[in-house]
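Running log. JK asked me to keep both predictions on one page so they can be read side by side. First protein, sequence followed by its tokens:
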Amino acid sequence: MSFSSEQFVAKLNRLEDSQESIASASKWLLSQHRDAPKIAESWKQYMLRKDVNTRRKLLAIYVVNHVVQQAAAQNIGHFQEDFNTVIEEVLITTFAEFSSDLKKKIARVVGIWKSRGIFSRETLNRILANFEKNQKINNSVNVNVPPKLKPVADIMKRIEKIQINAHAMKTRFDNAISELDPSSLVYDENYKTVQKVGGLAKNNIASSVQERKKLINALQSLIEEQNKLVTEGETMQSEIDFTISSKDPANATGTGKDDEDVLPTYEATDDTNGDSESDSDNSIDDDDKVKPESIGQGLSSDTLDVLAKMKALAESNNNNNLKRSNDELDNDEENDLKRQKEDNDETGMTYDQSNEDEVEGETEHVSTENSDTVTSSIQDLLSKLAN
């Protein structure tokens, strides 16, 4: 039966991580030893594919290891010679894809080949040298990993390891399901076996999911921390900009000119025309009068003291004048009443109360005139002093 590349790839895809599965595929390849060059080339193409996971590639390496050693034991030299032409390119190209655990397994296989002389020593030395160089690079990268990223890196390593087992068990479960025959006499036993395989596959997948959730939480914590640091950085930038702007001479305040504009001014108002019109009318409007609350604004303390004393003196004089006016009126009233009484006694007339009201009206009129006169004088004096 001639060799079929499609059949060979199908067997590689159905490989399981077990000695029986590896031995079965190797036995089939040994039976195709006449097509060893085609087998080596098909294996190379399979190993260089990007859609094949590292676990599948590791199992493919195990198959080659089993085939070449069996071929050496049976003196079938085709496999050693043909795989020697492709093994270096394949391993050097794909080695970086594997996790650290898988790299150790591959390096161990190559060491066995070297000790048993399976391939040429020069080829194996170049492969091992490349492995060592790659390992040093990885160690250097791991050393330079920031401390906050180490938990993430550790979770990633665990995920890679669990993922390999999860894929292997899932593949085994799929194969077991496909081979399950309901018409078989041992269907019940085969079904129980499939259940066990399915349970193992679920456990591996559950572990993978759990680790991935841990990874997501770790990454979210890092993102939240970085967002907080970004906000703090932007705040510090704003503070620096504000501080620089506040110290900019172009924005500085407090110059002499500005201070002068802020202070109130007390300039005399030219009311000459208004005074003339007021004098012609012999009257003063309320707006032109000096309001008590405006008196004293802008004057010195000494001037204010003088004004206060003058005001007190004016009030005192006003009171004295009012008192004298009242006393004089009282004396005049008494004399008038006395004379009127005498006249009444002579004429027989009675005292008329209306006279008393007229006297009181005259008294109030005199007092009001005196008070208005004094107040007007004081207001004129204070207005002049204020101006």
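And the second, directly underneath as requested:
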Amino acid sequence: MSGKKIPRSADNDYTREAAAERRRFVEEFTGASLEHTGQYSFDPGILPGNIENFTGVVQMPVGFAGPLLVNGEHAQGDFYVPMATTEGTLVASYSRGMSITRAAGGITTTVVDDAMQRSPVFIFANARDARDFGTWVADNLEGIRAAAQTTTRSGRLRNIEQYHASRMLYLRFNYTTGDAAGQNMAGKATYAACQWILQNYTGNLVRYLLSGNIDTDKKHSQMNTLHSRGKRVIAEVTLPRALVEERLRATPEQMFAARQTSQLGGLMAGAVHNGVHPANGIAAVFIATGQDEANVAESHASLNYVEVTPDGDYYYSVTLPSLIVATYGGGTGLATQKECLQALGCYGDGKARKLAEIIAATVLCGEISLGAAVVSEEWVSSHDRLGRNRP
């Protein structure tokens, strides 16, 4: 082991020269070539706040699926959806789902909740002190809200949930965050609110932690499934029987029976949701559009519901209770990610709910397509045809 530090420039570390120096350092130490890693088209000067020790890029293939027809409140019309993936058949499968839902008149999407959390925990000598503190918090919400608002122009503290356990009180601060994902915003605002609490509460507080982990940041939880984190968005469609039989080569009854069977299997396995593969579509769009990819952990949890209608058609809905997306800030302003957002008409202010509706509709298409491939026994043949690149 060399023990040498990775080269950094004290003057300006976000230059092509600084990146090239780091590539040479890694190449000399490892013997590996970073030729392709060093090929990129943007100015490294745009990267502060996105990465440290910038050395180059990892290029992901991007394909567009579509057209996707969305009948949303924020997303309306046809969209071609960028998906960054290395999994063959993925774009083709989502495109198939988009084709059949478009033939059915499109997908209806609805955002029903929108909030980002930070959850500090306050620790006391006993449970009664914690209870009394909870009463004080409820009585002083406006003062707490005013302190939080001093740190942000676009975020707003909506409400504070309280959860008692032992001699602790966990507070779940809920913020609206505009078009940013809002994790950092919520953390900064909650820190300011907690400082105000410490200055103004005169009871017997022992200590506090800014994160008590009940917000379950970048982890799946039942809390976020029930209470939402990010956007809670629902996508739904009714597929006519004739369309299901012609395009998916199955009947609504066969599709419904397969859902029942797979849900039982997922229950036995202890799966955290009853979706088919929502993480596939979400991750692919997240990477293409500059989202925080770790948020797939929360965002992929889905609540799928299907039924055969009295007319014999097939109703399918997907609820994403914790879809965390942004159209401003983070990685959304980087070169290729910005282009992909612009292709969706989703870059900048006022577009986060539109992007959420497009992603939810995309997930629905993938659920329908893969579910049908399993029923019609086309799953393996499709992967053999499109997903094998081994020599």
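Observation for JK regarding the second prediction: The first strand starts at residue 62 and ends at 72.
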